[in-house]
Automatic annotation (TrEMBL):
<dbReference type="InterPro" id="IPR001152">
    <property type="entry name" value="Beta-thymosin"/>
</dbReference>
<dbReference type="GO" id="GO:0007015">
    <property type="term" value="P:actin filament organization"/>
</dbReference>
<keyword id="KW-0963">Cytoplasm</keyword>
<dbReference type="InterPro" id="IPR038386">
    <property type="entry name" value="Beta-thymosin_sf"/>
</dbReference>
<dbReference type="GO" id="GO:0005856">
    <property type="term" value="C:cytoskeleton"/>
</dbReference>
<feature type="region of interest" description="Disordered">
    <location>
        <begin position="1"/>
        <end position="60"/>
    </location>
</feature>
<protein>
    <submittedName>
        <fullName>Uncharacterized protein LOC118419572</fullName>
    </submittedName>
</protein>
<feature type="compositionally biased region" description="Basic and acidic residues">
    <location>
        <begin position="1"/>
        <end position="27"/>
    </location>
</feature>
<dbReference type="GO" id="GO:0005829">
    <property type="term" value="C:cytosol"/>
</dbReference>
<dbReference type="Pfam" id="PF01290">
    <property type="entry name" value="Thymosin"/>
</dbReference>
<feature type="region of interest" description="Disordered">
    <location>
        <begin position="93"/>
        <end position="117"/>
    </location>
</feature>
<comment type="similarity">
    <text>Belongs to the thymosin beta family.</text>
</comment>
<dbReference type="GO" id="GO:0003785">
    <property type="term" value="F:actin monomer binding"/>
</dbReference>
<keyword id="KW-0206">Cytoskeleton</keyword>
Length: 117
């Protein structure tokens, strides 16, 4: 028995029987932005690893944020609207003609349409 494979079958194979296949990259290389993010994360981790918690000072936070109630918001909105309306300069408006584009049918047109059905 010979160690060499039979090449004649490969040469005689009809490539027309093969289907077209799109290749898809499943493991893309990281972008430069991804690499930079990972480097920054590593630097932050190293800084935190070397940090001695006993050397930290306690800090108090005072939150002095007061949220307005619905009535205060309504009053502010009303004041802004009144100021905007009272300060409006009507002389800068241009004249505009209004044309009605809807047509209401007359009784005769309605009767004619009913008769056509």
């Amino acid at each position: 028995m010979s160690d060499k494979p039979d090449v004649s079958e490969v040469k005689q194979f009809d490539t027309g029987k093969l289907k077209h296949v799109e290749t898809e990259e499943k493991n893309p290389l990281p972008t430069e932005q991804t690499i930079n993010q990972e480097k920054a994360s590593e630097r932050s981790s190293k800084i935190l690893e070397g940090l001695d918690p006993s050397k930290l000072k306690h800090a108090e936070t005072n939150v002095k944020e007061m949220k307005p109630d619905a009535e205060a918001l309504h009053q502010d909105r009303a004041a802004l609207t009144a100021a905007a309306v009272s300060g409006f300069d009507k002389s800068k408006l241009k004249h505009a003609e209004t044309t009605e584009k809807t047509h209401l049918p007359t009784k005769e047109e309605i009767e004619a349409e009913k008769a056509a059905k």
